[in-house]
Each structure stands twice: as C-alpha cells, then as structure tokens.
Design goal:
Chain B: Keywords: Cell inner membrane, Cell membrane, Membrane, Transmembrane, Transmembrane helix, Transport. The complex is a heterodimer of chains A (275) and B (236). Chain A has 275 residues and is mostly helical. In chain A, 78% of the residues lie in helices and 0% in strands. Chain A has a single domain, classed as MetI-like fold. Chain B is mainly α. The chains are: A mainly alpha (275), B mainly alpha (236).
Amino acid sequence: MTYVDAPSTERPPAAARRRWTAARVTGLLLMALWALLGLSIVYMLVAGYDPEKIARYGPRILNGIWVTLHLVVLSILLGALISIPVAIGRLSHNPIIGGIAFGYSYFFRGTPLLAQTFLVYYGAGQFTAALKAVGLWMFFRDAYFCAVLTFSLNTAAYQAEILAGAIRAVPSGQWQAADSLGLRPFTTMFKIILPQALITALRPYGNEVILMIKASAIASIITVLDLMGQTRYAFSKTYDLQIYIWAAVIYLITVEVLRRLWEMMERRLTRHLRR
Amino acid sequence: MANYMELLSFGDSGWGDELASGVLVTVTLALATLPLGLLIGFLIAVAKNSTEPLLRNAAHVYTTIFRGLPELLTLFLIYYGGQMAMSALWRLLFGHAFEVNSYLAGMIALALVFSSYASEVFLSAFRGITLGQYEGAYALGLSRSRTMLLVILPQLVRLALPGLSNLWLNLLKDTSLVSIIGLTDLLRNTNIAVGVTKQAFFFFFVACSLYLMMSIISSFGLRRVSAWAERGQGRR
C-alpha cells in the first residue's frame, strides 16, 4: 500500500469567470450604443457652440424655464384646491353629487389635454361679447391664463381620483374606531383618515407633478412662451436641432431631480412604517 | 340647433365626413402603434428582468429618457431630427432630399413613449409570477423560450392587463399631438373646421366628445379582454 504524503499540486479552482452570455453581449452593445449617442450629442452641443445664438436665445430659454415653472406650480396648487370638492363628490353617497363629480373627472381624464386647451382658448373666442359683458375677456384673451385654467381643471380631475382612492384605501375600521371614541367627523377626517391617506397618495401625487411638467409643453401650442414655446421659437428662426436637444436635456434633468427629491421625501415621511 | 346639425352633416356643406376621417386616422394610428409599443415594451421589460447588470442599465436608460421627456418634445425630436438625419443620408446616397412621413414619425414617437411605460407595467407583472413557475417548467424539460411563451406569457398578460389598459387610453389621447406635425387626425380636422366656420367652442366640444366616445368604447372592449384573460381564475 502506497502512501502519498506529497502536498497536492492541484491549484484551487479559479474564481468562476463571468461568461460571455448572449445577455451580456447584448447589454454591452446596447450600453455602447447609448454611450455613442450620448457622446455624439455632447459633441454636437460642443461643436455647434455658437456664442451669438447663446446670447440671443439663452435668455429667452431661461425665461421659458421660469414660465414653465410657475405655470406648473400654479396649476398644481389650483388643481389641488379644485380637487377637494371633486374628491368629496366622488366619495359622496348621493347619486347626483357623485354623478356630477364622476362626469367631471371622466371628461377631463378621457379627453386629450390638447383638445381641452383648444376648447378653452379658442372656444372662449366664440363668446367674446358675453365675456366682455361680464368683464372676463381680459382673462380669456391671455393664452397664459387659459393654459393655467385648463391645466388646473385637468390636474384637478386626476388629483381628485388620487385623493378619493387614497381615502377609500384607509380601512373602515379606522372610521369605526374613531366613531367609537366619540370623535367628530371633522376631527376623524383631519386627524385620523387624511394623515394615513396622504401617505398612500404621496407617490401618485409625485407622478402627477411630473406628468404636469411634461404636459405643460402643450401650452406652447397656444402661443405661451414657456420652455417649449421658446424652444420652438428659436428653432423656427435657426433650424438648429441643438435647441431641441438643449430643451430635452433641461426637461430630463428637471424630471429626474424632482423624482429623486420625491423619493427622498417619501422615504423620510414613511420611516415609521419601515422595520 | 338645426344650424349645428348642418355643420356636422356629411357632404360639402358639413364637416361630418372630415371629422369621421379624422377619427379613422386617430384610431388607426393608435392601433398601428400598439403592437410596436407592446413588443418594444416587452423586450425592455425582459432586459430589465435580466441578471446581467449591463443589460438592465441599458434598459433603464431607455425608460428614464422616454418617460422624462414631454411627449411633444419626443415627437418634434423624431420628426425634425429624423427629417434632418434622413435628408443628409438620402442626399449622400441618392442626391435628393427625403420627406419624413408625419404618420411614421408620429407612430415611432408614440411607440417610444408607450413602450417605456409598458416596460414598467410588464416588469411589475413579471414580479408577480413566482419562481416556482419557472422551476416547474424547467423541471418538465421545457426550453427557456418555450417556458416564456407557454408558461410565463399567458400569466403575464393577465397581470399586466390593467396597467396596459390605462396605457392604451393614454395612447389614444396622445395621438392628438400628431395634429401639430400636420397629420390630419381628428384634432387637425377640427382645427380646419374651426378655421372655416369660426364655431370654435362647438367643434372642439364635438372633438372632445368623440375622444370620450372612443375611450368609452375602448373601456367596454378592454373589459371583455380582461374577462377573457381572467377566464382561468374562477369566480371570485
């Protein structure tokens, strides 16, 4: 019987190497494609840098960003105000009130925002005499005000659905418990139900803000000079595609920053729910 | 009232036929975009579901871009950018300019937007399918592609359908944007009618009602599709 006491010459198995699977090759190719696209865009922006154009259209674009921002903020806030009675209507057991709220929300969610904007802006022109008589013509003559009005009504319908859905999602036991403690309905709503509902509603609200930023580009069609409007103006003067790319970069950064901020806020507000 | 009815009549004096042909363009555009968007969206979702980080990241870049851009801007980028790129290419190859079809540009732009949202819907549907389904299929000796086709996809359809229904309704509304690049869809024809008749409120209200009608009809159709997809689930 032989007894071998030599140390093994075998090496330990090499760490498993990542194999070149089809998925990996595809992923690499696609990433290379994105990188190429990104680099060519950067190259285009750098090579096409034109101080004269920047001087002429830069301030206009900045002004456009400002217009977009207050258009969105104003619409969201007004929409939030309008959404409260609509949400109450959606939750109401009265078939008439419920029906009206449902009709409102169905109309504004079922038709394109562009068509609604045209309806308000151009449609008001049909009633010039009547609007002048009640002194509202100044309001409807201005494309900006028409855009704010349409966007507020539109986002109110979506926000009402978010709010109503979130309130419905609070378990009915919460209502019953508050009732049995003898709390008034008002107190129950504001101290018990809404704080729980708003946490559910947080994420959809964030989505709605982002959708509104994107939708606000539609205002440019009715001659509001927001970011998109100024971009269209500059493009019509120069036929330089760079301007659209700049606008795309600005929109992307805005949306992405907002999304991250919202995520941070959500994490902070729901920290008591995490284990 | 009779006046309004005449405005909507078919024929030379009314705008009924123009609006009807607009509805047709809107519906066919949405229907043509749907399969393209679903296919790209599904592939992107598969990529996001991959174990390969490179592939996942490539898919996430796609979604970030096309969900972050306003639909209108995507449309303009495709339309004008495509016009410029294709013209340069055509001039190089054939020596003359190239006219980008606004229908095709609209279809591509809408498909990009639709697919980026659809990929998220498909992804969350994928998460709803337990690992046991894959393991069971492999244990039965099904290949990967047949597992996907015969076992996963039928369940995926059921889970993804509510989200996809919403996206279809959004797509139907987003088609209105192509009117701006000159496609004679419902909204464009309405604009023309308004330009001639000066009855802005009336015609835009009719257009809104037609859009509403389209979404109501879609909702009924989608309810039937959903009943079909749920047929294996038993009564609840």
